[in-house]
Amino acid sequence: MPDAEDGGSLEAELPGLFALEPGDFVAARDDLAARARTAGDRPLSARVKALRRPTVSAWVVNLLAREETDSVGDLVDLGEALRAAHQTLSADELRPLAAQRTAVVEALTRRAAALAAEHGHPTTEAVRAEVAGTLQAALADPDVAEDVRAGRMTRAASYSGFGMVSPGSTRPRQPEPVASLDQARSRRRTREEKEAEQARIRAFTDARRALETATAAAEAAEDAAASAEDAHREAAEELDRRSQEVADLRAELEAAEAAEEEARTTTEGAREALDRAADELDAARAAREEAEEALDALGDPSSGG
Fold it and tell me: How far apart are CA 284 and CA 278, in angstroms?
């Protein structure tokens, strides 16, 4: 019965890679890629193998996303609202928002550093600067924001003025229009509900596959049990037959032993009788000899002498 892992269950292990300690990432990644290849999902295997080990700062950001889900979600919402405000507000009106942005980033950076220390990885000033830069980038770029929220960063992102993110970008992204922070949060809730529904569907699919596998295993076990029961019954019947044969042979042996004993007794009795007859014969012969001698001694009266 096949027990190979399916691509869906292996795909579900991807987020767990980014939750590992930095030193454990490569071995776990290679193991997952190998299992995906064994399962026949070569595209997944190639995609997993191509994942880069997160830098220390990326690992710290991923840790923050796991431990402070709501706070990071609020950061993403704030980014959407700020991008909308950047399109419609004046520079003077943007200054308070910029101050709020800075305060949020600094607070989350401190929290991320504290979490890293709790996990045995104190951060350097350079790492904290990269964490702050990545959070700034998440405010400006929805793609970075999504990776930060999902906790799957592999390297730090940098911020170069609101609306521009590097590495790799040569011009600012056009911000998505969002009317307000409340609407941004509403959109996030809708997105999260959709993702939760997709997760439920995946869980149901995995559970159904597990049920099918378990059902097949149960049927195979029932067949094996039935075969074992038949074999046991046949063996028990054969044992009964052999036991009866042994009992019959034992009875015959006992009867033969009794007959042997009886024959031995009869033989002994016959020998004793034979011995007595021999003794009697010897005695009769001796008596006859004595009688003959006595007769000879008397002589024959008819002879006249």
Answer: 10
Q: Which of 154, 156, 151, 155 is nearest to 63 (CA)?
A: 151
Residue 236 maps to a domain: no
Q: Which residue matches tokens 């993110």?
A: 165
User: Among 22-36, 56-70, 224-238, which stretch is predicted with the lowest mean pLDDT?
Assistant: 224-238
Range of the domain at 2: 1-53
pLDDT(153) > 90: yes
Do 77 and 190 meet the contact criterion of CB atoms below 8 Å apart?
no
Alpha-carbon distance of 147 to 143, in angstroms, equals 6
Phi-psi region of 51 (alpha: psi -120 to 50; beta: other; left: phi over 0): beta
Instruction: Look at the chain and report how many structural domains it folds into.
Output: 2
d(CA 83, CA 220) in angstroms, rounded, equals 60
Res 221 pLDDT > 70: no
As a whole-number percent, the residues of the chain with pLDDT over 70 amount to: 72
